[in-house]
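Can't paste images in this forum, so I'm doing it all in text. The chain is below; anyone willing to post the predicted structure tokens underneath?
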Amino acid sequence: MPELPEVETIRLGLQKYVVGKTIENVEIRLPKILSGDPKEIVGAKIIDVRRFGKGLVIDLDNNHSIAIHIKLTGQFIYRDSETSSLKLSPKTGGTLPNKWTHVIFKLSKSAVLYYNDLRQFGWIRIVKSDKIKEISFFKDLGPEFFKDLTFEKFSNITSKSNLKIKVLLMDQKRMSGIGNIYANDALFDAKIDPRRSAKQISEEEVKKLYNSILKVLTLGLRNGGASELNYVNALGQEGKYQNHFLAYARDGEKCIRCGTIMKKITLGGRGTYFCPACQK
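Text version of the structure:
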């Protein structure tokens, strides 16, 4: 599932291309994806694009917003006269629209914003802007790295939890933005075994882990996210963080630090990758 770096990369792209444009029409090809009345956003101008954890909010000038969670395979792809010649990743289906395209936002200046979703797990909701925080996904989000999750808050959360540290890192109600990729890589960078109980990790290790999380998230952002599955940016192009994985998806390979063969286990229902020698 796209995590903070991927969703933030999409947000930055949408911020650049759609802010200032007016929504002229909304074509709904798969009704279950979108809830709310499209008539409430037709004719409205896009004034901002915000991100909360792994969720996006497109704000309009008529006090309405479009709340979005792209889940596992959702894609937002922008096209206009200047970007139409850019090559699309095969992960988009190669042409637009296609069988994975479920909602099409037709914008002013002949621009188009396509929402693709292979697995159809994502959702789009049209709501009044002051009701965004009433949507359970946004209401229940924990503090977020780079925003309000300070080291002190992070330390307090870990010190009180009996959860295995990797499972805790991925709990969006306790802290938001981190998913499987960056949890694996941050724990590897901090040399912490993902199976350890969070409250048993020393204060020094917690500080190291906090810094490792910021490090891998920053690297993910710098590389435009990881296109391990269907993720693409707002122009339909792939990120490059998958070329820099530290631990994620590296089972059976040699540890980049000590040469020990990396292992894969399952924690919290998710594949977990670690070095049995380096991570203690």
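The longest helix spans residues 203-222. The first strand starts at residue 23 and ends at 28.
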